[in-house]
Design goal:
Its EC number is 3.1.3.71. The chain is 41% helix and 15% strand. The chain is α/β, with parallel strands linked by helices and 258 residues long. It has a single domain, classed as ComB-like (putative 2-phosphosulfolactate phosphatase, Alpha-Beta Complex). The protein has a 6-stranded mixed sheet with strand order 1-8-2-7-9-10, sandwiched between helices. A 4-stranded mixed sheet has the order 3-6-4-5, with helices on both faces. α5 crosses α6 and α6 packs across α8. The longest helix is centred in the middle third of the chain and has 14 residues. Bound molecules: D-malate.
């Protein structure tokens, strides 16, 4: 597990990387793609988003995103997944710029990496994709302005909970076997029999075990969840808490998410 704030310390190459910003960038991106948009282009700065839009034919794109959870002036849409309906986004390029999520995607991708977009909406599908790839896994929690966030860690934990189904050996047994490797400071290697969990991943798993029957409670307990509630966005919290509502696994590669 990494947070967007400490990603620089992680060796990401040749690993499966997932970015979670469940309130709300990840949820919005997955929803826009599920509703048939052509592609999503995450952009860090608002000015760059406008500049990119100027290069595209009128009517072929939607500019979306937020600052402080409020729609950016001049954008078509804010960052509510509920705005990205099929009638609005079908066949369009969605250019999106958000406070934490789009940054986290770009940082996690580095020069030309591949990043999966994870949320509560697609936990099971993400877990399946990770199991199929058989690589070491880094779950990047976007957090809020560089700080730990409960809701992203919950989603990461739910993916881990699902991933465990794909392995035979119990992780604690495997952990003991990996103990020496860890103390010799070797990078843990993917083992087809066992999912070896770092302590941060165990903590995320335990969080998931606490909230899995009521993920909305996790969102309500979070700082950003409370902020969205104050802004009258309870419907967004409800939607973003729908576990496995979608089956798509968006992937960022080569500047776009498909
Ligand atoms: C972000 O990227 O910071 C979030 O998605 C903020 C939000 O809730 O709109």
């Amino acid at each position: 597990i990494a947070t967007a704030g400490n990603i620089a310390g992680e060796a990401l190459s040749n690993k499966s990387v997932v970015m979670f910003d469940i309130l709300r960038a990840s949820s919005t991106i997955s929803t826009a793609l599920a509703n048939g948009c052509k592609e999503v282009i995450p952009v860090i700065d608002v000015e760059d988003a406008f500049a990119l839009a100027r290069q595209l034919p009128e009517g072929s794109f939607i500019l979306g995103g937020e600052r402080g959870a409020i729609k950016v002036t001049g954008f078509h849409l804010g960052n509510s997944p509920l705005e990205y309906t099929a009638s609005v986004v079908k066949d369009k390029t969605v250019i999106i710029s958000t406070t934490n999520g789009t940054k986290a995607i770009r940082y996690a991708a580095g020069e030309n990496g591949r990043v999966f977009i994870g949320s509560l909406l697609n936990c099971s599908s993400v877990a399946k994709a990770l199991a199929d790839l058989s690589k070491d896994i880094v779950l990047v929690c976007a957090g809020t302005r560089g700080k730990f966030s409960l809701e992203d860690t919950l989603a990461a934990g739910l993916v881990i909970k699902d991933l465990l189904k794909f392995f035979n050996k119990n992780p604690w047994q495997a952990k003991t076997q990996e103990h020496n490797k860890f103390y010799l400071e070797e990078t843990p290697i993917f083992n087809n029999d066992a999912l070896i969990l770092e302590d941060a991943a165990v903590a995320a798993l335990r969080l998931a075990e606490y909230y899995w029957q009521s993920p909305i409670q996790g969102l309500l307990d979070s700082l950003h969840g409370q902020k969205l509630l104050q802004l009258g966005l309870a419907a967004d919290l409800d939607y973003c808490s729908k576990l496995n509502h979608l089956t798509n696994v968006p992937v960022f590669f080569n500047d776009k998410i498909l």
